[in-house]
Amino acid sequence: MRRLRLVFALPLVMMTAAGAIPPVGPIAAIEPSPGGSDSLTTSQVDDLVLLGKIWGFAKYHHPSITLGRVDWDSELLGILPAVLKAGGRASAMATISNWLARLDPPATCSPCARMPDDLYLRPDLDWIRDERTLGSILSTLLQRIYNNRQIQPAQQYVTFAPGVGNPVFTNEKGYAEKTLPDSDLRLLALYRFWNIIEYWSPYRDLIQEDWDGVLREFVPQVWASNDADTYRLSMMALIARVHDG
User: Fold this and answer.
1) Which residues, other chains included, contact 236 with Cβ-Cβ below 8 Å and sequence gap of 6+?
2) 53-88 residues labelled b (16+ CB within 10 A) or e (exposed)
3) In angstroms, rounded to a whole number, what is the distance separating the alpha carbons of residues 222 and 197?
4) φ and ψ at residue 141, rounded to 5 degrees
5) What is the pLDDT of residue 23?
């Protein structure tokens, strides 16, 4: 099996750039994330973990995003303040549901993209069907996205190396002007890396860690990394958890 090597550059996860499909404007108004505190409540951590998983799922599955019609980084930065201020799981789920619902609904696919029957390692997507955790509205939205995946030779944020088939991560903004990214951009870096491993690492089964638990551990750590050295060390520690030699 071919080993996936992930390229990481600070201050954010920055992948090889290719020709972008011009995105439309953001669907969510962007405002600064709430500041003034280096710590998050347990409820906020739970909500940010959920947001990171849903943001990554939509990034690689929703046609408005895979076709480059929406700037998905800007969408995350736009919705973060509302999720942080939600005040509880029910309110956070409603906020995220309303946000996703503003995307153009996926058209019914025919034929639909499907995973090969002999695929060695499938992504764990049982969570999108968990109505007890997500509620019926949000779960239904996520399942509709998944069940209507269009066949595409390439996506806005990932293509495949010719003749090899390894994923090449494209059109990721670098934000290189930020020596220490703001807290919302630090979360963006965490979400990018975590979802790349979740959906594209061929050795995810060998990590031998609860990958959801890693996300939950690093959300408050990255949020509180309020100087450049602490942030770098946090992201290096995250990369080390992949155990990629």
Assistant:
1) none
2) bbbbbbbbbbbbbbebbbbbbbbbbbbbbbbbebee
3) 17
4) -60, -45
5) 39
| Phi (first) and psi of residue 95, to 5 degrees | -60, -45
Most confident of 17-31, 91-105, 170-184: 91-105
Identify the bridge partners of residue 168 per DSSP, sorted by sequence position.
159
pLDDT of 5: 37
Structure confidence by residue, pLDDT tens digits, 81-125: 999 999 899 999 999 999 999 999 998 888 888 877 776 777 789
Domain ranges of the chain: 42-114+123-240
Residue type, 227: D
Which residues have CB under 8 Å from 169's CB, separation 6+?
Answer: 15, 16, 157, 158, 196
Neighbours of 244 (CB within 10 A): 15
Alpha-carbon gap, residue 231 to 164, rounded angstroms: 34
Which of 40, 14, 80, 12 shows the shortest CA–CA distance to 231? 12
Which of 11-20, 113-122, 175-184 reaches the highest mean pLDDT? Answer: 175-184
Which residues have C-beta within 8 Å of that of residue 93, sequence separation ≥ 6? 50, 134, 135, 137, 138
Length of the chain: 245
Q: CA–CA distance from 118 to each of 126, 146, 153, 162, 204 (Å)? A: 19, 19, 20, 21, 17
Beta bridge partners, 24, equal: 70
**Residue 155 structure tokens:** 């996506």
151 pLDDT higher than 90: no
**In angstroms, rounded to a whole number, what is the distance separating the alpha carbons of residues 34 and 238?**
24
CA distance 40 to 38: 7
All residues at 6 or more sequence positions from 82 whose CB lies less than 8 Å from its CB, including other chains: 95, 99
